[in-house]
Design brief:
The complex is a heterodimer of chains A (162) and B (102). By secondary structure, chain A is of the alpha+beta class. Chain A has helices at 19-31, 38-59, 92-96, 112-119, 143-161; strands at 6-14, 66-74, 77-84, 122-128, 132-140. Chain A has a single domain (6-161), classed as 2-Layer Sandwich (Heat Shock Protein 90), CATH 3.30.565. In chain A, a hairpin with a 3-residue loop joins β4 (122-128) and β5 (132-140). In chain A, α1 runs antiparallel to α2 and α2 (38-59) runs antiparallel to α4 (112-119). Chain B is α/β, with parallel strands linked by helices and 102 residues long. Chain B has one domain (2-96): STAS domain (Transcription Regulator spoIIAA). Chain B starts with a strand and ends in a 10-residue tail after the last helix. The chains are: A alpha+beta (162), B alpha/beta (102). The complex binds adenosine-5'-triphosphate (ATP) and magnesium ion. Adenosine-5'-triphosphate sits between chains A (50, 54-55, 58-59, 84, 86-89, 95, 100-103, 108-113, 133) and B (56-57, 60).
């Protein structure tokens, strides 16, 4: 039986906005082991940026706290858990709706959760008011399948030519 | 951010050079609004050619500038929007009021 590739990493940092870029770049560097396409990597970066920004802006409301990231690679998929121990979300269904924001005054668009849902294959939000929030996202890196397809196509083309 | 004002056309081109996230957007906002209130253009073009990353903060930033320009009687368009950025703009519907050129 073929072994499934597995790997794991954890990140922990202070809730400063400077760390938004650090977090998404670190996760992208870790995800690079799965050999994702440029587009898949951009999707992961954007989703991480959204969740980390939410932890900083909404979870801790710019007070100091710790943001944690747990990343797991299993086979050709990556699971990313981003959590804070901030104020939590009262109504998760409402928070996930496109354009819903509790801070419209700060030019928020309310599209963070919608972007995470669209850019990743799975997204789950767990939250308890007063205790914190955890966002769990999963993405399957599809590149290999596509590449195999194209290789087969090319081989077929060549055999037709001969 | 680089800015270029073409007087004959009352056109202001703002070329964004930085990553657009919650951290960077405040500076972009301030600089853009300074340029807009300085020239009072009829049209503003936001050039995304050198933007390597953007998240939802970009939607809020564009919408905010649109509101100001619209209040001054002008319009806003976007230019050189790469595929990943376009995906984000399209999702929000903002391209209906701030069209992407070309
Ligand atoms: N980690 C969190 N802790 C507490 N509340 C949160 C958290 N993440 C999201 N929320 C709540 O969910 C709402 C929706 O989040 P979402 O990211 O979709 O939009 P936004 O952050 O308000 O705007 P945008 O992401 O477009 O700038 C937020 O306005 C906030 O009320
Ligand atoms: Mg958000």
């Amino acid at each position: 039986m073929k072994n499934i590739y597995e790997n794991e990493m954890k990140l922990e940092f202070v809730s400063k906005s400077n760390n938004e870029a650090f977090a998404r770049i670190s996760v992208a560097a870790f995800a690079a082991q799965l050999d994702p396409t440029v587009e898949e990597l951009a999707d992961i970066k954007t989703a991480v940026s959204e969740a980390v920004t939410n932890a900083i802006v909404h979870g801790y409301e710019d007070k100091e706290g710790t943001v944690k990231i747990l990343c797991k690679l299993v086979g050709n998929s990556i699971t990313i858990e981003i959590s804070d121990t901030g104020k939590g979300i009262e109504n998760i269904e409402m928070a996930k709706r496109p354009l819903f924001t509790s801070k419209p005054d700060l030019e928020r668009s309310g599209m963070g959760f919608t972007i995470m849902e669209n850019f990743m294959d799975e997204m789950e939000v767990k939250s308890i008011v007063g205790l914190g929030t955890k966002v769990i996202m999963k993405k399957v890196i599809k590149k290999d399948e596509v590449e195999e397809e194209t290789i087969t196509e090319v081989l077929n083309e060549i055999s037709k030519m001969n | 951010m680089n800015s270029k004002y073409i007087k004959e056309d009352k056109l202001l081109i703002l070329e964004l050079l930085e990553e657009i996230d919650h951290h960077g957007v405040e500076k972009i906002r301030r600089k853009a609004d300074d340029e807009i209130t300085k020239y009072m253009p009829r049209k503003v073009i936001l050039d995304f050619n050198n933007v390597t990353f953007m998240d939802s903060a970009g939607i809020g930033m564009v919408l905010g500038r649109y509101k100001i320009i619209n209040m001054l009687g002008g319009s806003l368009e976007m230019e050189n929007v790469s595929t990943p950025l376009k995906k984000i703009f399209d999702m929000s519907g903002i391209t209906k009021i701030c069209p992407i050129r070309g």
